Protein 1
Amino acid sequence: METLDFQFASAPVSRSAHAALCGVVGSGNLEILVQAGDQPATCQVSIKTSARGFGATWQAVLGSFAASHPAGGTRIDINDMGATPAVVSLRLAQALAEYRGGEQ
Amino acid sequence: MSLALVARKSWFEATARARLGGLLDAGSLQEILPPGAAQPSPHLAALDLPGAFDDGVVIGRATLAGRPVLFAAQEGQFMGGAVGEIHGAKIVGLLRRAVQEKPAAVLFLIDSGGVRLHEANAGLIAISEIMRAVLDARAAGVPVLALVGGSCGAFGGMGIVAKLCSAILISEEGRLALSGPEVIETVAGVEEFDSKDRALVWRVTGGKHRYLMGDCAALVEDDIAAFRAGASEFVATWQEPLPSVANLRATQQRLENRLAAYATCRDGLQVWAALGVAQPEAVPLLDRDSLVALKEGLPT
């Protein structure tokens, strides 16, 4: 297992009272928990992944997400079991949409 | 594709949280120890494996058709729904709460291969505590309904737990047994049981077989709405019987009779023929309603 921590500058998202959870820690899948963070223009991400050595890929996928979505002021925790970058991107968008109060 | 098929939401394919969303009254679900509130498994972390925020089980309270219920839903996609220390402690705590709160029922959405082997003795102890807690809840007059229709079925220790519940609601896709097919093949050889023969696995452990044998109270379609309808009916009508030695003796006798009648059978097909089914080979292709009609017409 590898633990990775990142911080990205991101446009602030409106604060939500409830956390959002998406996905399941199954083969090729991951779960994402989005909660309110303490820095309004920063997206803090912490990842536990079974696949070692993909730090640069995570940074690229998460950086692209933080640049294209308003994710500032969130703390995102991820448990990963080998999800591909495409699955990670979809789940991140889904989790943020749920955090913002939209159904899916 | 027919409209009915489009509208159907498969229980088998859904996650634990999606099942709960369709099973319980909309907006009534209150999770106990939601993700972030409980610690993930320390044993998996020690083995350098990522855990899940809820350790693979969602517990809480809700209403079902207006009646208060407690629920526990196992997530089969996380480590095969296997029971670890925290996973088990959440279920045990919920069942103990049921003894205090006396809800109309506890709904136990089982989807598990049994003990989480990574957690060894902690997992085994957790399963034994769940067994005791199920019986304590029932002795306190709270019915515990097992709902079995997930991809992992109910095997190993969770197979025993399912049978300790007041009743089991199962779908054709659901499976219920003690040792799983691959365990039997590993221990006793492929001549004894071919775990790759999926049709055989379902003829021996699947929902239709369990329903025909009288192991499950009801057979429902693989549809979240059908599980909701079945569970609502159970909660509205079930009276938990007082524990009685006479009932236990009668059950023991029934099991001995079953062993004597079917011990030499090698396949569900043979069991169904012995049960009095005229065309056993047609059973796997019957739809749910036809199978229920078939069972009702069987000699008892």
Protein 2
Amino acid sequence: MIVQLSVFNTMRAMLENNASLWLYGLRTTLLLAFVGTVVGLLLALVLVVMKIQTPRRDAHFMKRILVRLVRRTSILYVGFFRGTPMMVQAMLLYYGLQSLGLGIPVFTAGLVVVSLNTAAYLTEVLRAGLAALHKGQKEAALALGMSPYATYRLVLFPQALKNMVPAIGNELVVNLKDTAVLSVIGVTEMFYMGRRIGSARYQFTESFIIVSLLYLLVVNIAVWLLGKLTNMRTRRASIPRSDSGVMT
Amino acid sequence: MITLEHVTKVYDNVRVLDDINIQFKKGTVNVIIGPSGSGKSTLLRTINYLAEPEKGQVFIHDELVDASPKRLRKARKAVGMVFQDFHLFSHKNVLENCMLAQINVLNRAKDEAKKVALKHLKAVHMESFVTRRVDTLSGGQKQRVAIARALSMNPEVLLLDEPTSALDPETVGEVLEAIRTIAKKGMTLILATHEMAFARAIADRTIFMDAGKVVEDRNGATIFETPHHERTCAFLSRFTKTA
């Protein structure tokens, strides 16, 4: 009982004495996850367009090679970022750029890594979302005289993105937790702050209980908000659905 | 006028269209009949190049249609299409379905596009459904919206690919009535259908297709009374038996 009270008191003192550091870490984590997810989604839109390119059989030889190159680039990109840990990507980007004399701030490096990583995963989600649409949607738009670009922009992407809301939500939740690995290059997010505050008096148990509680809080708020968003969307679509489809 | 010259389309080594030579004149109602897999739908789809022929050429008003974006867009502006499964845009409501391409392709102002869409929705008796989501409509209602959407683009020719095949018998009548009204207005129609009684009532010309070839091509609905070709006889007699 005394031990439990002592842990609680230490945690309270830790929170009170380092409030600004905790808030800074929380803010960094939230910024990295939210901005990283949005930028990643925008990049994924470009990457998926690159990935679904198919060369026309009557196209010029050079154009066919170019189309294949564009497609292959997207495939390699997705393969690399899905096939390597984000921690390794962060080390490669941050120290790699430094060794080339192109050093960038750690926060920027962290944001770039989260965005690039998210883009790779969302490219696959978006590709699956587009593949799940009935091919008649594309044909109907083309038959009305719409260009392929307008067909994707006005007909296919809006439908695919609508179906992707739960998957984007999942990616956001994953990002909220996975930004912890960016502490490896010194990004001052929640994990980094937990380690820093805990190391002052070697009180890691207490500091990481606080870190866990903070992660639980933000992740559950995000899940709750995404659930609301998904339910709003499904109510509008008049399709009954019991849960948000967001996993933690 | 639409002209197809030596059009051949191959899917998986099967000649779905085999050296088709045919012309469709302005203001006529052309009905294409034939068994499933005879090439009716593919013939319609080669006209607006949704299916690109391996051989042969398609002309709309003597202008060649090919894969070049400019020519393709021009051809598709002139030729509207109604699909068997409607293919309405599920993220748009009834009115928006009829306005989207008008704004994007014809560069019409929003107000004008709305006016045109409402006119055509009224013609198919769907004016009271404008704000409805398309997934809440019945099959017949969906097909009437699809017809209004195609007509909102003011096409010169309307391709109708088995427009009643996906409908329950109760709603077939409302769609056929909408097509009959369009036909009376003198629009060029090319209709692939299994509705023999309707084809007989509406056709200025009837074409019977089998195995990717035009087997019989006759004026009016005479094909139903006196079919010349053995294959046409067999096909129509099967219909009479099942009817």
